[in-house]
Amino acid sequence: MDQNGEKRVRAKQSDGEVDWLRDLPESLLCHVLLNLPTKDVVKTSVLSSKWRYLWRLVPGLDLDCRDFTENNTFVSFIDRFMSFHSDSWLRKFRLRFYCDLNGDDVTETAHMARWINALVKRKVQYIDLTWGAVEIPPILYMCDSLVSLKLCGVILPKLEFVTLPRVKVMVLDLVKFANDLSLEMLISGCLVLESLTLCRRHNDNVKVLRVRSQSLLSFNYNGSSHNGLHDDPVVSIDAPKLEDLKLSRHLSACFITNKLSSLVEADINIEFNFGLGKKFDPNDQSKREMIRNFLAGISSVKNLFIAPCTLEVIYEYSRCEPLPLFCNLSYLSVDFYNHRWELLPIFLESCPNLKSLVVGSTTSPKKRTSILCGPRHLLSSLEYMDEDGEKRVLAKQPCSPESSDKRSGDEVDWVRDLPESLLFHVLLNLRTKDVVKSSVLSSNWRNLWRYVPGLELDCRDFKELNALVSFIDSFLSFNHESCLKKFKLRLSCYLDGDDEEADNAHMARWINAIVKRNVQYLDLTWDAVEIPPILYKCKSLVSLKLCTVVLPNLKFVSLPLVKVLVLQWVMFANDLALEKLISGCLVLESLTLCKNPMDNVKVLRVSSQSLLSFNYYGPGDNDLHDKDLVVEIDAPKLEDFKLSHQLTASFIIKNSRSLVEADIYIEFNFCRGKKFDPNDLPKREIIRNFLAGISSVKNLIISPFTLEVIYEYLRCEPVPLFRNLSSLSVDFYDDRWEILPFFLESCPNLKSLVVESTHYPKGRTSILSRPRCLLSSLEYMDEERDKHVRTKRSGDEDGDKRVCTKRSGDEVDWVRDLPEALLCHVLLNLPTKDVVRNSVLSTKWRNLWRYVPGLELDGIDFTDYNTFVSFVDKFLSFNMESCLNNFRLSFYCVRDGDEETDNAHMARWINNFVNRKVQHLDLAWGGVEIPPILYKCESLVSLKLCCVILPNPEFVSLPSVKVMVLDLVKFANDLALEMLISGCLVLESLTLCRSHNDNVKVLRVSSQSLLSFTYYGPNTMGPKNDELVVEIDAPKLEYLKLSHRLTASFIIKNLSSLVEADIDIEFNFCFGKKFDPKNLPKREMIRNFLVGISGVKNMAIAACTLEIIYDYSRCEPLPLFRNLSSLSVEFYIHKWEILPLFLESCPNLKSLVVGSNTSRREGTSIISAPRCLLSSLEYVNIETPLRGEALEMKLVSYLLENSPILKKVTLSLDDYSRKKVECELLTIPRRSSSCQVVVL
């Protein structure tokens, strides 16, 4: 079938059969053959004269040495194939070689180097190599075109530099590396890596495996099956977007998981090296901490598979410490040794929302241990369960009591043979009233209730209150040496009339008893009874729920294991009592607070480093002090919170960068006749800071009260941007839909919107009733309005086959009635490939794609180059008089063509959309030249160019361009780039990623409007890198990032507005070059550079830059950084002594973050004594784990002894040196009496 859709008469053979292949174009045939092994492709050459040499044109090679009788023939064939069309692109290269070529490693390496060089030049996209012990040449690690890399059995040498900007899939199977750093650089050099599979060998030279990737989605790790020299390898994973994780390695001693908040599925088959006779040691604190952090790292997973060996280790660990909660886990598949079903309940306690459970068994023998064999809690959320083990006959209970003791046929009494420990845990989930009733079942059950490790009572179950007291005393006297798991008590009256002292005495006696019995779950409801202080030192308590009790003034609180705290209508002595209770729970994760109007708390401070969830409900009564109520939240790990109170006057949010979900139902006390006053500046500041504090949230629910206040506020000031917000649920008063557009302006990435209405009457205000912005990211919308008409849709996800909704009953087709203009703007945000697919929906949609004011195409989506060109031409021919919003084109496909043709196509298209007033242009096309007419486009707002060539412009006028990105662009000369930048009169953001042969020796950035500039120098060393100069003249510049070690000179002018700077430069002092104090021009350049950035407020400095600054400071004094309040510095390992020298120049520094770089450099003579008092420093964070070495502790001592107003120091300690460092910290004097040292 041809591309224009015309009918074609097909050639018929004599027997009536149709020859489909004869008329197919060569390019299509080549792509079909690309999916076959080369052996089969070559066989097709005998079909006809047309097919004789077709195999040479196929853009790929797939060979196995076993298909060749001689190795020399194998090598010769590859060389011959690579010589064909050596200028064309090669899509894939797959090679399997399992033997030595004449036993000569040098010869094999030479062959491989020759082929890899050819592949890189031919822009290969997919490489799959299996070759025992051959070395891969370094040029492969700078291949810009590679998308997939699979290596097996090869050797990777020591890497100096890796840049694989397009690699998404990488498989490393039994590969040998030079050292740890080689593998780490290879992974981090893949900037868009999504899938990584690593199957290790025992002698791969990697002791510490670090997987750091900001884009990685899937990681599959299979350790060596042999116990090599390193029986304690470490695996560290830092991948914030990781969704799928599989770990299989029994001998790896340590797994470190960081930032796995996006984890969806995990398959864990590891033993932490507790195999081959090694056993878990409860006294090994470092090993316990490693397991604790690993479990916490994967605790957000949704689907989990656990091997039996892993479950054994988790069980042993759980006997020492509680397991973290797997709150998101809905599917669990577990396996046991030899039907060790008893392990399961321990782990299931940590899975509160589990819905599906698959259980299997492994027959591998393993020595049994003494295990508590019963379920530990009710599986309240479990919906599905499947057993993969042996087939089991289900037990049938007899129908009559008389037959209950018979064991005939298939009738089995499972309960009678259950061990007592299992029965106790079953009964633990029942109320004590029901447990006691079971004592009449038989003589075995008569006293069983006394040994259940829990008590749950309600005073309403007793006729006399004295009987209740007596029963509790009697129960607590049984087995008083055993542990008590839970204690739950509900009392709604006084036990001894109105005698509070008697009630307090009962409570004190019972609390003392349960604390001694290491109670874990405590739930108390008792009006006005006072809780004794001993409860606040309970080391075993995990969950504490208190209702209507009285908490006295607390001197000391230490609840090290409490994770859940619920306080309902509790009376406190003062603000401090509640604050100390919360901060005393060191691992608190969930806090719910329902305030009593007379609870004596005027300012509620919630300060916790571990809190994940916070629910706040204010008092329901209009107390006299409502107008003064303040809630202050400082919880850096907080993910979910709900605020519900209309009368609380002020909410202060700090450190909420981890916030995922928020439910806001507050009015800041603007109720009961009170109205928002635009002249009340303190109140406006409160609202501004609150909105800024929650602006990083992803899912948000807003009540109508809150939305009204936000609307009134934004009439005075703009609302901060909610850049992370993807889901929003809002409510309105009486169909006040007009408010919505105002808030939506602050949600640029919103994808899902749920709208409801409330019929509570409220006075209307004058509101702008039309939308203010285009909802460019919105994908889903649902309207919930008192169970009225809802949209129904059915069909597949891609929308190819959709059943149209009917207008009968409650079914409404919302889309059908939308105007074409709105549909076009919705479709503008989709790739053109998906837009065209919509043409099959109905006759109305058939030609709608032609009217969408934008084009977004990728050459990879087209099998033929001519088809790609034809489609672009055809699209641009439609509606030539209309404006074009955006034009995005990427072309990386392999083709046989000349540059003149490509340039002609580009010139024709650029002319077209310049005439059509294009606003956003994004072009990526290797080696194509951009026509000069582009430099005069008055409508262009955003310009992004990649890998193109810009000729020498005579004149540049881009009056509307605000954003410009130039990635690996080649220019005619220095002046061409300078004119392009200066010709953008309102340019605000410039990103420049240079190529080593871009013909620019002196880069001048001169702009009166520029706010942000990001500069990345060329990745490779060009012939003139020694002379590279960057000159910046931008008086309004607020953000500056410089990253290049080879650029020789940076000249900074007029940066008086600079707010933030990220500096990673060396002024070309690398590759053996050193700072020369006698080089006066270089010293002057560094002096002027430092003076140029000295007005910055927030700065990050790389280790290499700090080294240069130190060398310079030994010759001349540094300029003062008077405005600098936040500094992040990095050092080469153990070079802490450099810091005091630079801090002398920061008189107003408040926050300091210290890290280290693992690269080693030659040592220099550094002054190690403190040079000045840090009179302004308030916060210090040392991110690198301290090992207790002399230079490290000298740095800590310097900071603590020379900072008079220091408030907080955060230290990370190495697991193996923790005790040593903690002891040393206690001996260091502190100049600041209020300094808090936090150890992680």
Automatic annotation (TrEMBL):
Q: Which domain of life does this protein belong to?
A: Eukaryota
The F-box domain sits at: 18-54
InterPro entries per record? F-box_AtFBL13-like (IPR053781), F-box_dom (IPR001810), FBD (IPR006566), FBL13/AtMIF1-like (IPR050232), LRR_FXL15/At3g58940/PEG3-like (IPR055411)
Family matches, as Pfam families: F-box (PF00646), FBD (PF08387), LRR_At5g56370 (PF24758)
Note the PANTHER family from the entry.
F-BOX/RNI SUPERFAMILY PROTEIN-RELATED, PROTEIN WITH RNI-LIKE_FBD-LIKE DOMAIN
> Which protein is depicted?
F-box domain
